[in-house]
Specification:
alpha/beta, seven-stranded antiparallel beta sheet, 34% helix
Length: 794
């Protein structure tokens, strides 16, 4: 039988009365505002909002009559033919569920309305193709199948329960018995009978009877079939058995139920939905929405990912890498400007545990006092005091800057000077800060090298310096954490050589430090050059490589030495605009999720662009890799860290693009990202000076990420849903700057506006759990980070 097709129409709503629809209706607000009441909840629909109204569901609309609303009806028979509506539920109301992506559905609705008015050759064929595309989108993006959740059954039996349930769904219209299920599941009849009652709360006959009655309601209310035919189509042998079962469940007969439904429908269909016949009033809006699919006509829809998270687990306690630490600055730049305000702000919003200051051993930072003798530790004391005042533990990088010890043959560090400086700094600091406080700090002794020209300090000389330095620190601070080497992630072999030498010489490092910037070296020794890595899991693969190499090495406690990533960042180049785009945010989130449980510490590089800007105040952004711009405005990475700071240390699940943690009082936190890697072609041109206007052309082709995330075994009830969306439209300083044409020399008012405007989009809604499940169907745009908090309303 050919599918029933109902033409779309454009309406104006001016009503204050309830309506009971016989079909499914998709409403899209083309202009104006409409208020609705559905399923006991008020919602306010603005332009571009859409909602799906179900048949038999009482809806109240309020409208002034100065609105235009596209109405796309779908008959019950067609919807049930292509979508298993009895096996789940629709979630399709953009005004209360803004984290879902509705752009494609809006486009399809508009295309269908335009196609229904066409009369040319193949117009009917095109119209039907769009209609079936709309059904496909509804099914795959806005319909969520239920997963049987039985709280009294161990999770190891969940597959069995779902298998039984699926069998009933597919065969309920036949004369099935428990014997049939026994043969299907290969379980004995006696065991299956006990198991079924424990799992489903009632015996097989009662459960199937109720299921048949509920499945019959659609035919009873919307078809013209006789009561006898409806009953027999849904598994009852005759009319009497159907009527008896129906009265037992609903307290009335099927005929009386149908009559009451039809009478209510006739009485309550007085809502004034006035059709607008003048197409010129709305055709422009339809064309606008029909093009809002980014040119995807004819392309396959992106694959959806379904994550099922068992919410009743205790959760795995982890070190919260998202709050581990931040690189404050290289020591030489701390004095170039007062960054104390940024440190205070970042601690208030994020609360990092450690603040790393690199290259402390610099003559311009800690220098000999020629008049008084000894060293001048004024800048050092000021820096440490401020870190401690905001609750940040110092991570001291005891590495010589390669700028101060370069020789024609490589790098040579004055060992005697290093040891003298180290001892004097420790003794001075013990008097100022106290031994107990200083034993909380981290001391990282690194080898001196240059990442760009591959020059490096001689291994034997460094091992000697490390051993003696470690001994000095342990003598003064016995409980301190000491380790180091501070090499890049591609230097695993050299690190193992150093580590073997340190252990043989009696050293006892508490950790090994490494930095991670996604670069690889290509070419031979003569023509070797750095290029950007196209591997989206570069950091994880490098850490795993190191852990394999270090497998035989143990610390003083007999356990494997942990890896401290003391600097991870997007680029080492100080002028590359990928550091300013939303790529920065997704890079941070993806790598933190990937490295969770793999490393002992993770410190992002770095806090502020101000350290490198100097006199570049004519540009708002300049390709630096800080979380603050030079004008102290938050960049996407800052906002991403702020989102992650709300995660807890109890992780329920994580994957390549998401993490779920558990809080107190039935609260759950979800973080998702859609990270887009740099394209293979641009990886070879990473050092090119890419124009600002082409910043987003360097990435691989990307599509929306569609995620269905199910929290299983939650308490039933209503949950308050708070969601935060960081993307190119919300929270991106670079994209806001792009709208201005990349103005130069921003004034006070412009900077004030940007500080107020740069924040993620926030949405608040309410969502109910059903049968122990809380479902989220989320569309994540390229370069987008989404944070969701779901808390049970008491």
């Amino acid at each position: 039988m050919e599918d029933e097709f109902i033409k779309p129409r454009v309406l104006t709503i001016a009503a204050y009365e309830p309506v009971l629809f016989k079909e499914y209706h998709l409403f899209l607000i083309l202009s104006g505002h409409v208020r609705g009441l559905m399923d006991g909840e008020n919602f306010f629909m603005d332009e571009s909002d859409l909602v799906l109204c179900l048949p038999g569901e009482k809806v109240i609309f309020w409208g002034s009559g100065r609105n235009m609303v596209l109405d796309v009806p779908v008959s019950v028979s067609v919807m049930e033919k292509y979508i298993p509506v009895h096996e789940g539920r629709f979630i399709c109301n953009s005004s209360v569920d803004a984290q879902r992506d509705y752009a494609n559905l809006r486009s399809l609705m508009a295309k269908l309305a335009m196609a229904s008015c066409e009369t040319g050759e193949d117009s009917e064929l095109y119209e039907k193709s769009v209609f079936y595309g709309l059904l496909y989108d509804l099914k795959n993006r806005h319909f969520e199948k239920n997963i049987v959740n039985v709280p009294d059954i161990s999770r190891k039996y969940s597959d069995r329960v779902n298998r039984i349930f699926n069998y009933i769904q597919e065969n309920y219209a036949r004369n099935i018995s428990l014997d049939d299920v026994s043969a299907y599941t290969h379980l004995s009849l006696s065991y299956l009978s006990r198991f079924f009652k424990q799992a489903f709360g009632e015996n097989f006959v009662t459960y199937v009877k109720k299921y048949r009655v509920e499945r019959s309601l659609s035919d009873l209310c919307y078809s013209k079939k006789t009561v006898t035919q409806v009953g027999m189509d849904h598994g009852f042998g005759d009319a009497n058995s159907y009527i008896r079962a129906f009265r037992e469940i609903h307290g009335t007969t099927p005929k009386a139920f149908r009559d009451r439904f039809n009478a209510g429908n006739e009485r309550q269909s007085t809502v004034r939905l006035c059709e607008i016949t003048d197409r010129t009033r709305y055709v422009g809006k339809l064309q606008e929405y029909s093009l809002n699919d980014s040119g995807r006509r004819g392309e396959a829809m992106p694959e959806s990912r379904h994550y099922i998270v068992q919410a009743d687990l205790e959760g795995m306690a982890v070190a919260p890498l998202w709050k581990c630490g931040i690189n404050i600055s290289s020591a030489k730049n701390i004095g170039s400007g007062d960054i104390s305000d940024e440190i205070s702000e970042i601690q208030k919003d994020i609360g990092f545990a450690y603040g790393r200051v690199s290259f402390l051993l610099m003559n311009r930072y800690v220098f000999k006092d020629t008049e008084q003798g000894g060293y001048n530790f004024f800048s050092f004391t000021k820096m440490v005091s401020h870190l401690l005042s905001v609750g940040m533990i110092p991570y001291l990088d005891l590495t010589f800057s390669h700028e101060e010890c370069k020789t024609p043959g490589g790098y040579e560090v004055d060992e005697a000077q290093f040891l003298d400086w180290l001892e004097q700094m420790l003794l001075y600091s013990v008097n100022v800060f106290g031994r107990e406080e200083m034993e909380k700090w981290i001391y990282d002794i690194g080898i001196t090298y240059s990442i760009t020209d591959r020059s490096i300090e001689k291994t034997a000389a460094f091992i000697s310096r490390y051993i003696k330095g470690e001994q000095i620190i342990r003598r003064i601070l016995p409980e301190a954490r000491i380790g180091g080497f501070n090499v890049t992630s591609d230097m695993a072999d050299m690190c193992m050589e150093i580590l073997s030498g340190v252990l043989e010489a009696g050293g006892h490092p508490d950790f090994i430090s490494m930095s991670i910037f996604p670069y690889v070296f290509v070419g031979d020794k003569a023509g070797e050059r750095m290029v950007y890595s196209s591997d989206p899991e570069y950091a994880l693969h490098r850490v795993q490589e190191w852990k394999r190499a270090m497998g035989h090495c143990q610390g003083m406690d007999g356990r494997a030495l942990p890896i401290y990533v003391n600097a991870i960042g997007t680029t080492v180049a100080q002028r590359n605009y990928i550091n300013d785009t939303c790529y920065q945010a997704t890079f941070i989130v993806k790598n933190i999720i990937s490295l969770l449980g793999e490393v002992g510490l993770l410190i992002f590089y770095q806090m502020s662009d101000y350290n490198f800007s100097y006199a570049e105040n004519h540009l708002l952004l300049n390709g630096r890799n800080g979380l603050f711009s030079q004008f102290q405005i938050h960049k996407p990475g800052y906002i991403a860290f702020s989102m992650m700071s709300r995660l807890t240390e109890l992780v329920l699940a994580k994957g390549q693009d998401y993490i779920v943690t558990k809080g107190k009082h039935d609260t759950y936190y979800i973080l998702l990202c859609n990270h887009v890697p740099v394209s293979d072609r641009y990886c070879l041109r990473i050092w090119d000076n890419t124009p600002i206007s082409e910043a987003y052309t360097v990435y691989a082709q990307a599509d929306d990420l569609n995620v269905l995330l199910t929290l299983n075994h939650v308490k039933d009830g209503d949950y308050r849903i708070l969601s935060y969306h960081l993307n190119r439209e919300n929270g991106s300083l670079f994209d806001e700057w792009e709208k201005t044409g990349f103005w130069e020399n921003p004034g006070t008012e412009e900077l004030k506006y940007l500080r107020q405007a740069i924040h993620p989009r926030r949405n608040c809604s309410k969502r109910g759990s059903f049968n122990g499940q809380l479902n989220f169907h989320i569309g994540v745009k390229p370069f987008e980070v989404i944070f969701i908090e779901a808390s049970l309303i008491i």
